[in-house]
Request: fold
Amino acid sequence: MRTAITVPELREFKRRGEKIAGLTAYDARFAAVLDSAGVELALVGDSLGTVIQGHATTVPVTLAHMAYHTACVRRGLQRALLLSDLPFASYPTPSRAVAGAAKLMRAGAQMVKLEGGRSRLETVRALVAEGIPVCGHLGLLPQSIHRLGRYRVQGADPQAAQRLLEDACLLEEAGVDLLVLECIPATLAEAVTAEVSVPTIGIGAGPHCDGQVLVLHDLLGLWPDGTPPRFVKDFLAGAGGIEAAVRAYITAVKAGEFPADIHCY
Ligand code: KIV
Reply:
């Protein structure tokens, strides 16, 4: 029987230099495949708004949707740590965030993720004070897509890069246990990873993060218009099956072979 991954253990991965392999999961059967393949982090991402519900953005996703999919994924996991997203506009105040996170934790999450930096510090502290592990999310923030205009690389100019680095340090001080970095230059992700003691998990953030996460459907080559984002690789092509594709992804992440230069900004 493999022992379940705990939140404190994530830091051990960083300490011993072992990359953390993460993937999104939205249902029990795929969660079980990820788990038996050896994924350490199963993220019930609000990306379910696009890949499961067929919306153009994550904005329509509600707390009820997240709790439902979290409960589904919980039933499929034995070892992987279950991280769930607090969805769009569900954490405008610390107390609303705690109430929402409690729903996700009761559904089976072991950690919750929220988007944003310095504006979220009070919220992170309130969650941590309730014993709720928190994952920060910096860089491209999909819940802010209508402010951003389009999905594109963040932190590319020196001021934005400096601000992101500061945000990472502030989130660490506030108590996050994990930090997702989305769509930022590989050099910036490397600097953040060196600066903070909590593990960084990259998606479109280069090979120097302490771990990687991908949307499961992207890894399986299921892209809506046939054109993957730069940071995505189809691991199903040539793998012979879904579990083999997940294993190939984990092997490539652990070996530092994914992401390669062609997947980086
Ligand atoms: O919702 C999601 O899948 C995510 C990843 C992009 C990290 O937050």
Strands lie at 20-24, 41-44, 81-85, 111-113, 134-139, 178-182, 200-203, 211-214. The chain has eleven helices and eight strands.
